[in-house]
Every structure is written in C-alpha cells, then in structure tokens.
Design goal:
The structure holds two protein chains of two kinds.
Chain A lengths: L8 E2 L4 E6 L2 E6 L1 H7 L2 E5 L6 E2 L4 E7 L3 E5 L4 E6 L2 H4 L3 H4 L7 E5 L11 H9 L1
Antiparallel strand pairs in A: 1-2, 2-3, 3-9, 4-6, 5-8, 6-7, 8-9
Chain B lengths: L10 H6 L3 E5 L2 E6 L3 H10 L2 E4 L4 E6 L3 H8 L12 E7 L5 E11 L2 E6 L4 H10 L7 E4 L5 E6 L3 H7 L13 E6 L2 E6 L8 E6 L1 H13 L3 E3 L1 H10 L34 H10 L3 E8 L10 E4 L2 E11 L6 E8 L8 E6 L2 E8 L11
Helix pairs in contact in B: 2-7
Classes of the chains: A alpha+beta, B alpha+beta.
C-alpha cells in the first residue's frame, strides 16, 4: 500500500504539492515512485522557467521508460532539488521528503483544482 | 488487461512470484520480478532464468529441407555439422526483414527454426507461402514447446547441478537433444544476453518442472525488462527496433550474417545491390554527454536537421552511461561524428560509437 500524506494536495497524474504562502513545493507521490520502479534520471526544469498547471515541466525516468511530469500549479520555478541530479534514487527512498521543484505561484486559487488526500487515495485504488 | 493475450505454461508461476506483467508480442509476459537492475546484474554476475516460451518454433522436414532453408534464410547452412545453430534473417524480395531467427540443423533433412513471438503468424504464413515446389513438411510447433533460457557465468554449473543435464561439451551455438522424462528435450548453448547460457525446449509439463527446480534452487527469475537491457548492451538487435519490414539486415549493420556468395535466397538481389551501392543509412551506437536517456523514436539531429532516430536507448546498467542504438543517414554514421539527440524540449550532444556498450562473455 502506498503512502499518502494528509496535508498535501495531489494531481491525478501523481504529483504532490504543498503550498506555503505563494511558494508551492512539488514532487511525485509514493505511488508514482513505486509504479516507476528504479528511478535513474530526473529531467528537471531550470530556475526561472515558467510552468503551467497541467503542462509538463520535466520527466522522471526508470530503467524502462520516461514518464512526463505535469505541473500541479502555474508560476515561476524559483528552486530545483539539485541533489536529484546525482541521486535520482532518492525518489524511490522517500518521494515525499525529496521534492523536485519550488514554484512561486501566479494564482494560489489553482490549488482548489487539485485533489485532497482522500480523493487521491481513490485514484490510486482504481 | 487486454483480451486474447496468450499465457505461457509458466504464467501462474509469474503471477504467484508477484511479477509485473505486461503484453508482449501477443503474450502476457513478466517484465520484472524484483527489479530490472537486480535481474540484469544477476545475469551479468551469476545466473538468471527467463521464461521465453513465447518464442515460436517451426520444424522443417523432408528431402528438400536443406534446399528450402537455404532459399528462405540469408545465412549459409551448407556443409554444417548436425547440431550446429545459425543466426540470420528471412528477408522479403526487397531486402526488408521478415524476422530474425535461429536455425538449428538436426540433419540435412530436418531443421528447427526459432522465431520471434510477435511474428509467429506472419512467419509461418511466409514460410508456407514460399514452400511450393519443395518437398518439405512444415510444422508450427509453437503451441507445443515451452522454453526457458538459463543465462550467466554460472549457467553451466546450474544446468549440471540443479537440472542434472550434462551440457559441458555443448559448444557455443550448438545443441543436443536429450531423452528426459520420456520426451525429447532440445538444449542449446545460445541466448540473448551476451553471457554464456543455455536455452531449453520441452513440453509444457517439462518446462514447468525445470522452472520449479530452478526456483527451489534460488536461481533469480528474470523478466523481459532486463532481457532488453542485456541484449541492448551487447549490440544485439530486437525485431521492431533495429530490424523490421522497412529495415534490411545491411542497414541494421548485420551484413556478416548475409551470405551474398550463396547461389540463391529470397532478397539476394536487393541486398546485393544495397551492399554494392552502400546503404543510405545504418544502425550505429551513440554515446550521450550527460545523464539524459535517449529512447526509441527520439530524433537525432545535426545542425537542427533530423538525420536519424533512436531505435533503442538506455542508461546502461553495466556501465552507467547513456547510450543508444540509432538509425542514422550517411554520412553521419561514421564513428566519431558529433550529433545531437532531441529529448523532450532539449537537445543533448552525442557521439557515434560502436554499437557494443559491454563486451560479450561467451564460452567458445
């Protein structure tokens, strides 16, 4: 059974987001890392890139395949988790503490379009 | 799950081992059990076992068997000793590839062909369709045979000690038939991993029995995921990636298996012409700078213009490098040529290299 944290919001494409003020921290869920298997590469955006809700901002790659990352929020990338460049397997070890990017959001109300933990749990059961 | 997927005789074993199952070539096959990396390393360092019962088997028998096999197969089986195996292709008249296959020579009047799962129906039709005028019997024995591949440096000791099958004196690309449990079992020193290993063909009951013995002995079960990473690292082609109806063996850089000095075979004229004129494109290796991973279908560019595409690409498990096989137009196929691979929104510099990213470790 995959871990789901109660205080986060989720996209049905298996990204999580935590909004603090106007800064959103974004990562992939435990369900996603488990489904992907051994993660060998994270294709990350660059600081300063504009991202849009529902649009791809990079990819996570397992041995077998690449999987697009879709941004759960819109705004400007202000920080990326550089430790994933050398150690992408951190996502397998703990997907929730190893975030991928931080975004200064342009519209905090967008968060309401995302799933809460209970709704996301249902997505994972399907 | 998709309908009409065929289950191999080991399907229930895969499910109870908790394998990740996925459709491949019309079969519901195990992609991985523990993880591609662990399974890959088991084969490189010790031994692993694959269910390859999805592969097709066709027996060609009769007074014209030698003549007929020579007609449909690009490699040359002339004067081979009984028990030898040949790798090669069947080609269309235009040189495109019907399939790549192994031909086991039982004797001059009997050959055993091992073909790709995804091509069984097409191949059997092709083989039958070209057999007119030859005194041969052709039998598709795919439904009868199960097959396992035991691969890795400890494959020989596993065959001998766990399965009790004496294989020490079977040479590379040779086979023997054994009478085991009252049936004829074929054992060959072949594989698709670049390591020493054996492939065992028997009835479903026999295949289940040896699989269970291997599991009891703790041999690592390996899925199609690492079968692909292993064959890729040693530059072996996969039909659908490096070979297809649109790709000739010469374009696939496999001309060494096309014997143009043979008097006759289907596709000879087209292939001889292509060889003489030089193919306009060919499969090469690429090594990327950086960590991005090239995948099947990604464009290869020079100065922003597409000159080819990736056929298979991985982060090599054995070397850690991002490498690929790619079909590249001339003259950009030369070793050392600098190209760029488009991966999503960015391009990454890459160099044309030999399409062998890891040295084979066969026992010859």
């Amino acid at each position: 059974m995959s871990k789901i944290l109660d205080d986060l919001r989720y996209a049905d494409s298996h990204e999580w987001v935590k909004l603090e003020g106007d800064i959103a921290t974004v990562g992939i869920t435990d369900y996603a890392q488990h489904a992907l298997g051994n993660i060998v590469y994270v294709d990350m955006p660059e600081v300063g890139d504009e991202v849009s809700q529902g649009e791809d901002f990079g990819a996570v790659e397992s041995v077998k395949a690449a999987s697009d990352l879709l941004s759960p929020v819109s705004g400007e990338v202000v920080e990326i988790n550089e430790s994933l460049e050398d150690e992408p397997e951190l996502l397998n070890q703990d997907a929730f503490s190893n975030w991928i990017m931080k975004v200064k959001v342009s519209d905090p109300s967008e968060i309401e379009n995302l799933l809460d933990a209970a709704a996301y749990a249902k997505v994972c059961e399907e | 799950m998709e309908e009409n997927l065929i289950k191999t005789c080991l399907h229930d074993r895969h499910v109870s081992l908790g394998a990740l199952m996925s459709p491949f070539g019309g079969f519901d096959m195990p992609i991985q059990y523990k993880g591609i990396t662990e399974e890959h390393n088991a084969v490189r360092q010790e031994v692993g076992v694959f269910d390859v019962s999805h592969m097709g088997e066709v027996r060609v028998k009769g007074p014209d068997a030698y003549k007929f096999v020579s007609h449909i197969f690009v490699n040359d089986v002339t004067d081979a000793p009984d028990g030898q195996i040949f790798y090669g292709m069947m080609c269309y008249e235009n040189g495109g590839t019907v399939d790549d296959l192994l031909v086991y020579k039982v004797n001059d009047e009997e050959y055993f062909l091992v073909i790709n799962a995804s091509n069984i129906e097409k191949d059997v039709k092709w083989i039958l369709g070209n057999s007119e005028g030859f005194n041969v019997e052709i039998a598709d024995q795919s439904p009868y045979y199960g097959e396992v591949a035991i691969q890795g440096p400890k494959a020989e000791e596993t065959m001998e000690n766990v399965l009790g099958i004496p294989v020490k004196d079977i040479a590379f690309y040779n086979f023997k038939t054994f009478q085991l449990d009252g049936e004829e079992v074929i054992v060959s020193r072949t594989g698709y991993t670049g390591e020493d290993g054996f492939e065992v063909y028997g009835s479903h009951a026999f295949t289940q029995k040896i699989w269970d013995k291997l599991m009891e002995a703790g041999v690592q079960p390996c899925g199609l995921g690492c079968r692909d990473t292993l064959r890729f690292e040693v530059g072996l082609p996969l039909y659908g990636d490096e070979l297809s109806a649109d790709i000739t063996p010469i374009e696939a850089s496999l001309s060494m298996f096309v014997k143009l000095d043979k008097p006759e075979f289907i596709g000879k004229e087209a292939l001889a012409l292509q060889k003489a004129e030089g193919a306009k494109r060919r499969i090469v290796g690429l090594e990327l700078e950086g960590n991005a991973i090239p995948r099947h279908g990604y464009p290869v560019e020079v100065d922003g213009i597409q000159v080819g595409e990736i056929t298979t690409g991985y982060r090599s498990i054995s070397t850690g490098k991002s490498v690929a096989m790619a079909m590249i137009n001339k003259p950009f196929d030369k070793l050392g040529t600098k190209v760029e691979v488009r991966i999503r929104k960015k391009t990454f510099p890459a160099t044309v290299v030999k399409k062998r990213f890891y040295d084979k470790n066969y026992k010859k």
